[in-house]
Amino acid sequence: xxTEHTMRAISQNVLGGPEVLQEVRLERPAPxxxxxxxxxxxxxxxxxxxxxxxxxxxxxxPPFVLGWDVxxxxxxxxxxxxxxxxxxxxFGMLPYPYGHGSHAEYVIAPVRALTHKPASIDHTQxxxxxxxxxxxWQALVEHADLRxxxxxxIHAAAGGVGxxxxxxxxxxxxYVIGTASAGKHDFLREIGVDEAxxxxxxxxxxxxxxVDVVLDTLGGETAxxxxxxxxxxxxxxxxxxxxxxxxxxEAARLGVRAVRMxxxxxxxDLRSLVDLIEQGKxxxxxxxxxxxxxxxxxxxxxxxxxTTGKLVLTVD
Length: 316
Ligand SMILES: NC(=O)c1ccc[n+]([C@@H]2O[C@H](COP(=O)([O-])OP(=O)(O)OC[C@H]3O[C@@H](n4cnc5c(N)ncnc54)[C@H](OP(=O)(O)O)[C@@H]3O)[C@@H](O)[C@H]2O)c1
Known about the structure:
This protein is an alpha/beta fold. Helices cover 28% and strands 29% of the residues. The chain has ten helices and 16 strands. The strands form three sheets. Strands 3, 5, 6, 7, 8, 15 and 16 form a seven-stranded mixed sheet that branches. The structure holds NADP nicotinamide-adenine-dinucleotide phosphate.
C-alpha cells in the first residue's frame, strides 16, 4: 500500500494486556454522506479503551482500532456536509460505543459528533476533554439537573471524569465534595473542590451528609452506599452502567433516584461545554501525553487507575 492512501493506526488482533496493541498501516477511509474525515492531532485515552482492549466489551472480537476522543483538522467532507470545510479545526467524541477509531492518523466522524475547536485551547486540551466532559455534563446537568447551592459528591474527583465534573458542578454554583487519596487533595482544591475526603482513611458515607447529587464513578458497593448520603429526592448518577439490582431497589426503599448511564455523542452538549471552555471555567489537566506509537505505554499507565486528569495520544 502506498503511504498516500494509508494511515498509521493502533490496532490489535487479540484481546489482552497493553502488549497486544500494535502500530499498523491501514487503508485511509473516505467520508460518506454526512461524514467528515478528520486528520487526528490528539486523542484522549479513557478507561473504556483499556477495558475494550482487554475484554472486547461492546465491540466483540478484534481486530479494531480504539479511541473515542478526537481533536484534529478536517481533511475531507462527504456529500451534504455543510457545517465544516477542509482545514477546519474540530473536536468531539465519536458515537459511543460503535464509532471508535481515533487512535490513528485519520478517523471518520459523523458531522453531529463534532464542533469547531475553540481557538483558546490546543489540540491536546481538545483531545482530552470530550468523552469525560460529555459524561460529566450528561450526568450532572441532564440526569441530575444540578442547581446552584446544591451539594454534590463526586467520587474519584481527581480522575478523568471527576476533575471535569468538579469544574462543571462549580460552574453551576454547587457545593462540591470530592473523594481522592490524600496526596491529591491539593489538586482537588485547585480545581474547586470545597471539601475533600480521603477515601482511604475516611468512610465517605460517614463524612458526606445531606447530599443532593452523587456522581458515582466506581459502581458496586460505592453506588449502593452513595444512596444513603442523599437528601430525600436526591439522585445518584452512576457511570458504571451495569451492576446488581440492589442499586435501584435500595433507591426505591429510600425514596431517592438511582440512574445508570452511558455517555452519548451530542453536539448540543458539546457546545455547552465549549461555552464553559471559552469562559475559562473548564480545562483538562493532562498528566501526560504520548506519541501515537506509544499507545501501549499510555494504556499500561492508565490501567493502573491512578491518573490525575487525563492521558492523551498526540499525532504529528
Ligand atoms: N458510563 C459512561 O459512559 C462512562 C464514561 C466515562 C467513564 N466511565 C467509567 O468511569 C470510571 C472512571 O473513569 P475515569 O476516566 O474518571 O477514570 P480514571 O481517570 O482512570 O480514574 C483515575 C482516578 O480514580 C481515582 N480512584 C481510584 N479508586 C478510587 C476510589 N476507590 N475512590 C476514589 N477515587 C479513586 C484515582 O485517585 P487515587 O489515586 O487518589 O485513588 C485516580 O485519580 C471508569 O470505570 C470508566 O470506564 C463510564
